[in-house]
Design brief:
single chain; mainly alpha
């Protein structure tokens, strides 16, 4: 729809502002992937990039973002066993944090 092209225009503008940041390009790819517009080869290429983005997010303590990226990476390239393992670990860490928070609230 029209919103899609608006989103892509915004991401492309963000890319020009910060060419070293691969996130806008990955977001464009994500939007295109959701529309079914990415070729198999693009999916494999972006799958790895999205997985690496997930690793960066995890290092920055953005577990929610990392989990989302790992899910997307696996969706784009189901053979990415590293992403599956990273997702499993991130989910465990996420659960541990949630448990700690709920325990703290109970005291």
């Amino acid at each position: 729809g029209p919103h899609l092209s608006e989103a892509i225009t915004c991401y492309q503008a963000a890319q020009k502002l910060n060419p070293d940041d691969s996130a806008p390009e990955i977001r464009i790819a994500t939007v295109r992937h959701q529309q079914g517009e990415l070729s198999q080869i693009d999916q494999l290429n972006y799958g790895i990039q999205v997985y690496e983005l997930g690793n960066q997010q995890k290092q920055a303590s953005d577990l929610d973002g990392a989990i989302e990226s790992y899910h997307l990476a696996i969706e784009m390239d189901p053979s990415l066993t590293d992403a599956r393992e990273a997702l499993r670990i991130a989910m465990q860490e996420h659960n541990n944090i949630t448990i700690k928070i709920s325990r703290a609230q109970q005291q």
